[in-house]
Amino acid sequence: MPQDVGARRGRPPISDEQRREQRLAISRQAVRLFREQGVAATSGEQIARAAGVSERTLWRWFRTKEACVEPLLSRATEDFQAVLRSWPPGADLGEHLRAEYAFLGAPSAADVADVLAVIRMTRDEPVLRAVWLVLHERAETTLAEVLGERLGLPADDLRVRLRAAAVNAALRVATEDLARTAADDPGAARRHHAEFDAAMRAALRAFDGPDVHRASARSGDLAHDGV
After folding, report:
1. Could you tell me if 18 and 108 lie in one domain?
2. Which of 1, 75, 77, 199 has the smallest count of CB within 10 Å of its CB?
3. 120: buried, middle or exposed (CB in 10 Å: 19+, 13-18, 0-12)?
4. Are residues 130 and 214 in the same domain?
């Protein structure tokens, strides 16, 4: 079988990790430009040049210039999903979140500032808002899978989906509130953990009921007073 000439003569393919890092680097440059000169005044060409990649590469990885914020912005949901997946069977969810979840894990201060800045921009930029909401929509599937497993119910069960939606909404609203208050209050990030925990518990308690507790008792994973 003849070899692919392009594959033989071209650059070696990059690894998934290298691709993630390059996408994140582009994302950081896009956010920096959006913050400095606004979304409307920023072009894909400018983002590509700042990130040191070709426009062809930029448009291959991102469908629009606004989509360039996804890799950085997704950190606000991916870290939470990772902590939720590590939730030990039999442990109270609230206690687990208090012990393991921290906003954006341990990133650089610049990344925290950039993520919060983009979240603030979603209030006035409809396309950025759409990107933010799509990321949360994707996260909800993971939330439903984990909650369903712990409750001993299918992920598409209405009770599970309602709880997943409540957790997702609590995460989004609490993060948006942090972004809003952190702009003028450097101490907001320190209070975020306690406020997030309270919001999460309130969101889950709103769907407390006998049917869910019967399922919870079978699995032994959700404490009555915590989740």
Report:
1. no
2. 1
3. middle
4. yes
Residue closest to 200 by CA, chosen among 88, 84, 121: 84
If asked whether residues 213 and 118 sit together in one domain, one would say yes
In which domain, by residue range, is 62 found? 5-70
pLDDT in tens, 57-100: 999 999 999 999 999 988 878 888 888 888 888 887 777 877 88
Q: Do 116 and 59 belong to one domain?
A: no
pTM of the complete model beyond 0.85: no
Q: Rounded to 5 degrees, what angle do the CA atoms 104, 115, 148 make?
A: 50
**pLDDT digits over 156-188, tens only?**
999 999 989 988 998 898 889 888 887 766 566
C-alpha distances in Å from residue 169, one per residue of 55, 87, 127, 136, 166: 36, 19, 19, 8, 5
CATH number at residue 57: 1.10.357.10
